Every structure is written in C-alpha cells, then in structure tokens.
Amino acid sequence: NADAAMYHAKSSGRNSFKFYTSDLNARAREILAIESQLRFALDRNEFLLHYQPQVEMASGRIVGAEALIRWNHPTLGMLGPARFIEVAEERGFIVQIGNWVIAEACAQIARWKSLGLPQIGLAINLSALQFRQKDLTANLEEALSRNGLSGDSLDIEVTESVVMEDAEATVDTIERMKAMGAQLSIDDFGTGYSSLSYLKRFKADKLKIDRSFVQDIPSDLDDTAIARAIINMAQNLNMKVVAEGVETVEQWNFLAAEGCDLVQGYLLAKPLPAEEFTALLARGILLPPDAL
Ligand code: C2E
Ligand code: MG
Ligand code: MG
Ligand code: MG
C-alpha cells in the first residue's frame, strides 16, 4: 500500500516506531482502524489523561505533573499518543482533541483543589497546529475560569519548533499565555533546533532535557556533556531544568550533583491514571530509594 509506505517514510521522528516490510501491513491496518475511529472518539468519550509527577530533586516534593493523553480505542485497546497523534494532526482532529485536553486538565486541577491537595502546576502538551488557532488563548481562559482557576495552574509545553516559528500569531499567543500567569516549558530540548537568542526572548520558565540525552548518562560522555551544558545554560538564563525519562538512580545522582531542578521519569513513577496520581499527590513526597 503506497500511502502507508509514504506515511511510514515520513514518520521516522522520535515518536514513531521503526517499521519493517513485514510489519507494514499490520501498521497499515492499524492506521485504518485509527483513522476510521478518530472522528468518533471525542463523542464516545474515549480519551483520557494520565499524569506523571515532576519532583523537585532537592526536596522530593511533587511540584508538578504532566498530562499525557491516552485513547481507549474500541478494537485496539489503550493507545499511547505515538500511535495516533500524528494521524490526528494530519487529519486536523488535533485541535478539537487539544481543546478536550485543555478542558479535562483544568477540570482535574479543580478536583485536586477541592480535595485540598498540594497545589501543583499541571503541564499540557500543545501541538504546533493548536498555536495557529486564533482562539487558543480564549479557550485556555475559558477553561480556567469555568473551573475557578488562575493561569498559574498551567504549564504549557511546546517544542523548539513552535518557539522558533517566528509567526506574529505565535509570539502573541505565547505572550498572552504568560500574561495569564501560565508557565512556559520547552519540551524535548536539544532535539530540535533553536537559537539561544529565542530562548532569551521568550523567557521560557523551564527547559525539559530530552530523554535521549538522559538515557545513557553518566556512562556516555557526550550525552553527559550535553546534559551538563543544558543545565548550566538554563541556570544562567534563570530557567528551571526538568530531566525527562529518568529511569536509574545513577542518572538521578548525576543530575542532582549537576544541579538539575526537577525530574520526571519511570524511576519515580510512570504516567498514572487520575485516581492513582491523586493518591501519590496526597503523600506529596516521592524520592528514589537509593538516592545519595
Ligand atoms: P513528551 O511530551 O516528551 O512526554 C514524555 C513522554 O516520555 C511520555 O510518553 C512519557 O510517558 C514518556 N516517559 C516519561 N518518563 C519516561 C521514562 O523514564 N522512560 C521512558 N521510556 N519514557 C518515559 P507518551 O505518554 O507516550 O507521550 C509521547 C508524546 O506524545 C509526548 O512526548 C508528547 O509529545 C505527545 N503527547 C502526549 N500527550 C499529548 C497531548 O495531550 N497533546 C499533544 N499534542 N501531544 C501529546
Ligand atoms: Mg511534554
Ligand atoms: Mg518531552
Ligand atoms: Mg518526547
């Protein structure tokens, strides 16, 4: 199937699988099952958010979480975003899905607030396509006010390519979000390309070191040097650094020694269903057992 082959050739990015000819038919069938069901998924209430804690290294306090979308597909079961986000972007569904994410994230923050749990910043991922929508900030404001929240409850994650897109609309949107009090985080930092002057201009609050630089520290000397450089640069520009994908205590110890501020990764917790995350938040502290 030529379309499927094209699709695969295009999707060699970090969020895709590697396909081999033997898998091609299976993946092509899966894409069909995804495309045909995607338009009904919102109405059928098949999306949900999982929450992964972000922990302050110095204290072990859970100070934030990232909301990560899942799709409970009628025939394929629970799907992670790598399986459907790209299709949703190509088919233009991402804007509606993204609005659902905004609404659900705000509703969840309000639930935690009503339970009297520690206030955390909830990070949401926004696609570049959402940034081209004129009503993005209005949607954010509406979802916040409907739930009685102020903008500082939200942490907006964008990739370098969004920040680097010099479109006036993007600059405007980011400035309005910051004026609302939302935090701005640069996701997957180091995998795209961004000029340092842009970082300065947008005054991002956080840089998230991509998992690809974290997974082989401290044994890989290049990755170790890159992680260290990102941490130093962020400190000098008054940004916080979040290390993504921390899985081992060796990584944790290295990052702690380098002065990394926050950690997110399987070492602490996988992305969790709301109820499980709520129980974790009630405890408030999350530290790896053997950390130095
Ligand atoms: P991301 O924003 O960089 O999110 C981090 C990803 O790394 C998540 O994958 C998370 O589960 C995974 N991760 C966290 N810690 C570890 C670890 O220790 N080891 C490993 N191996 N993985 C770890 P997930 O949930 O599959 O999401 C993948 C990507 O999908 C996200 O990458 C983000 O770009 C996108 N995404 C997720 N939710 C949304 C959404 O609501 N809207 C949009 N537009 N994109 C989303
Ligand atoms: Mg993210
Ligand atoms: Mg990331
Ligand atoms: Mg990523």
TrEMBL record:
GO terms for molecular function: cyclic-guanylate-specific phosphodiesterase activity. Keywords: Membrane, Transmembrane, Transmembrane helix. It comes from the Bacteria. One of its GO terms (biological process) is cellular response to nitric oxide. Residues 31-285 form the EAL domain. GO terms for cellular component: membrane. This is PAS domain S-box-containing protein/diguanylate cyclase (GGDEF)-like protein. The chain holds residues 648 to 939 of 939 of the full protein.
